[in-house]
Amino acid sequence: MASETMKEGKERYKSGVIPYKKMGYWEPDYDIKETDVLAMFRLTPQAGVPADECAAAVAGESSTATWTVVWTDRLTACEMYRAKAYRVDPVPNTGPGTKTEQQYFAYIAYDIDLFESNSIANLTASIIGNVFGMKAVKALRLEDMRIPVAYLKTFQGPATGVVVERERMDKFGRPLLGATTKPKLGLSGRNYGRVVYEALKGGLDFMKDDENINSQSFMHWRDRFLYCTDAVNKASAATGEVKGHYMNVTAGTVEEMIERAEFAKELGSIIIMIDLVIGYSSIQTMAIWARNNDMILHLHRAGNSTYSRQKNHGMAFRVICKWMRMAGVDHIHAGTVVGKLEGDPMMIRGYYDTLLDQQTPIQLEKGIFFEQDWASLNKCMPVASGGIHAGQMHQLLHYLGDDVVLQFGGGTIGHPDGIQAGAVANRTALEVMVQARNEGRDIWNEGPQILQNAAKWCAPLKAGLDTWGSISFNYESTDSPDYVVTPTASS
Amino acid sequence: MMTNPSKIVTQGQFSFLPPLTDEEITKQIKYALDQGWSLGIEYSDDPHPRNTYWEMFGNPMFDMKDPAGILMEVNNARKTFPNYYIRVTAFSAVRGVESVTMSYIVNRPKAEPGFGLTRQETGGRTQRYTIHSYATDKPEGERYK
After folding, report:
1. Structure pTM?
2. Which CATH architecture has domain B22-111?
3. Integer CA distances (angstroms), A44 to A51, A88, B39, in order
4. Which of A227, A228, A419, A435 to substitute to test the interface with B, most B CBs within 10 Å?
5. Which pLDDT value is given to residue A118?
6. B88 Cβ under 8 Å from any chain A Cβ
7. Using an 8 Å Cβ cutoff, are A419 and A412 in contact?
8. Domain residue spans in chain B?
9. Which residues of B touch A440 (CB under 8 A)?
10. pLDDT per residue over A351-365, tens digit each?
11. Out of A420, A438, A458, whose CB is closest to B31?
């Protein structure tokens, strides 16, 4: 059972400090169980610490171990509770001769009994609880996880899900369109609702509060909710379409958030919004409330880049996507590829797959290291927001597909002919591009011409393209996949 | 007349485009069939945004795989209900979807009166909103003459 590197019996439990490897946290021939939770970390060992010892330390500290031997282990089925590091691979393009110091991918297996059911807080307290500050590792990053079906089934999952959201919205076969009301701060409730009304009447499906629009002195939350409700209903009557405004209920306490959510429901809102910074347990509470109250739940990923952007330390955004789908949100901001925020195309496709797939295969080029069976958990709608405009519609549709909310904030509100015109430009660009794609045209190459042709009969689109047509944000991504395209046969 | 920029009900995938020609409709039908979806035709004289169940112009055509045949049904529906809203709906039976995957309007009444918004003042500053389809002031069958 135990690997040859592990000490046994009396020798193992002698007081003092022994390497984690020898405490049973390194088991290269471990036989992975279907019910195990698997995690893959990118680790940068401290000088002089071997990679397998480093991996064992991460396994130890994220499960049962402490820094020294404790005899009380022997009162438990400790062998089962120990996480097992079972594989360590050097990360391609790191180490001597490269710009980056040597890193390793370390795979660790955890028995399902280490975790409380239906608790992201408990799962994360183990997996990312203590290990990131350990001295044995210079840097550590959680790259991916495999959640076993047995554990997934204890989570509610998205309150509404993509399929039912579309049915409720009566919108099929195209990305949804949204925008964030700008400026972020300072608009009174009355002025704010004006922006919402204009954009929805012009043709958007959703408008959105920004992450830091809560209840400040310039606009208290009830005012915003009342005026936005008026805007949504007026726009719905003017177009014959179901419309929505994400009411951000983020507040200082969960009780206060529930109160705001209840008011949104009383007003007939179809969607509310929370920020990632409210914490995992609050998110789960709001997701259960949303399921019970027929509410779509939008999540803004406020704060995530603090720990997800740098490649050597923190956690990959795809893991946050995974946890948030389990926690039960219906929307999550997941990148645009072409906009103003960080994003390598393949990495972002990996986030989208994580949110939308029924079954995700291993795809190293997308940063997906484990196969994941989603056990019929609802799909979570990715949201693309930040510096995108109508002139990129062919690229957006190419990269992101149909199941996404495309949010054109500046690209709607900043339109030279007004907000309604901005919305018309975006909606027309979208419909003409979906039509062209369905007709089998090569939108990647013909896209700009397709838009120009539509601009001949759609003046707002022409004005939009003239204003933003040449804007792009071409920066190199900090987070990109590390893999070897064709694995070479090792001797 | 409706006051939105398009001046028409903008439900469906392609309401911001000029009315689709038969050739364009055929291409969209072909796309749906290529995805393995089934097509249905639905019509209504009440375009209220939450009127989910338009009347079916027959069941979804699960066994019809020829775009020309489906276009013929679209045109039959247009002949039978020239002054109604008619939409083409695609259904996917794939696990994980099992729902509508396309929906676009292919026929409209000549005049679209749109909707009124009724406000009922209630407690505090809260209002109850009712979206009212003007067409439904007349009985069924007499709405778009």
Report:
1. 0.95
2. 2-Layer Sandwich (3.30)
3. 8, 12, 55
4. A435
5. 98
6. no
7. yes
8. 22-111
9. 27, 31
10. 999 999 999 999 999
11. A438
